[in-house]
Amino acid sequence: MRIIRADTVLTGRPGEVIADGEVLIDGSRILSVGPRGSAGEAPEVLDLRGHTLLPGLVDAHVHLGFDARVDRVTGRSAENDGRLLLRMAENARKLVSAGVTTARDLGGRSFLDLTLRDAVEDGLAVGPHLLAATRPITVTGGHCWYMGGEADDEPSVRRVARENLRAGADCLKVMASGGEMSPGSVPSWRAQYPAALIRVAVEEAAARVETVAAHAHAPESIRNALEAGVTTIEHCTFHTTQGPAYDARLAEAIAESGTYVCPTVHGQFWNLRALIGAEPMDRWLGNVAAMRAAGIKLVAGTDTGFAIAGLDKRTDDYVSGLEVFAEAGFGNAEIVELATVRAAEACGVGTETGSLEAGKRADLIAVRGNPLDRLADLRELELVLVSGRSVGQRHVDTVTSSVG
Ligand SMILES: [Zn+2]
Question: What is the pLDDT of residue 181?
């Protein structure tokens, strides 16, 4: 049993701030959260003056094992599975070094995400709790086909879904549209599946893991994913041949349904803005702000692992993505919410983690300062607990790239 005290405790729930608060932890669980003195006595007390305690951060969209050097013709990677798994473990360590204590891996090959997830839980590797989608379901030759999840019709979508679930996937990922990372395949402004086929994956998930994430750029693919009843829509860029074209009626329908959207807001925003121009990037960010105004439940997820225009979305750069939400006009309290409790709910683990509450997993961080006043204080990590286990990672430098 131990008590951790801090000047400020943010429970993750909107507006819930405890001045001079404390959290009582027993092993991997939170026993109580309240003002100083509320937890009684404990053999171990950590008093963090000048600090804020808050739930561990959640990244709803990562690819720890993306290998940018995959041969586009053969689908063969430059890395063998053994080396790739080591790099994924290093990426997991970097992710937790940024205060991320839960991450959802939305696609990789060879079921390595499951191996890594279990290794982290067993204490063999340092990283956040991982939720793994394994092979994304995609059409033959479609977006990320080389991850091994090709399926073109109802029986084959069902088969890939069932195989992923049999292997131990925590959620399913469907490529509802094409993408920009697989040249020669379906472009991002084209839908890959009709709603009926996405619904097959939703049906298969319903009986077991429940959550389905749909990669969707094209408005038609967003509509199909929504109609199929997926849990989260990823990217949601409204991408057409003329660039992002916001569809207010579609956004309204998403908000009404309660479907979460992970717009994959990431820390390379300013670099990309300098590289490809302000107009398209500002239009994209304007769409994120419009989705918020429409009442859509947005969550934080970085799509880390992917490179855009040669810029590697670094695994340890999570907080920069949150700063881009601030750039779009979001307030700090709302950003903390979408990075913790709301992202955990979107990933289907809201009853387990994402907020500081009695009975939940002791996934929490302590930072110097107060992120409600200054978002950048989220970088001033003093403590990172994953299931009560301290995994603080300071001053560790490696030269390994997130994307191989
Ligand atoms: Zn992705």
Answer: 62
180 and 169 within one domain: yes
Q: What is the pLDDT of residues 72-105, one digit of tens each?
A: 777 788 899 999 999 999 999 999 999 999 999 9
Provide the 3-class DSSP secondary structure of residue 219: helix
Residue 252: CB atoms within 10 Å: 13
In a domain, 397, yes or no: no
Question: Do residues 330 and 363 both lie within one domain?
Answer: no
Rounded-to-integer distance, Cα 207 and Cα 106, Å: 20
CA–centroid distance, residue 371 to ligand 1 (Å) = 27
Tell me the per-residue pLDDT of 250-273, one tens digit each, with 9 for 90 and over: 999 999 999 999 999 999 999 999
CA 392–ligand 1 middle distance (angstroms): 27
Query: 400 in a domain, yes or no?
Result: no
Closest CA to 361 of 124, 31, 16: 31
Distance 61 CA to ligand 1 centre (A): 6
Report the domain count for the chain.
2
Report the separation in Å between the CA atom of 400 and the middle of ligand 1, taken as the mean of its atom positions: 20
CATH no. for residue 13? 2.30.40.10
CA of 303 to the centre of ligand 1 (A): 5
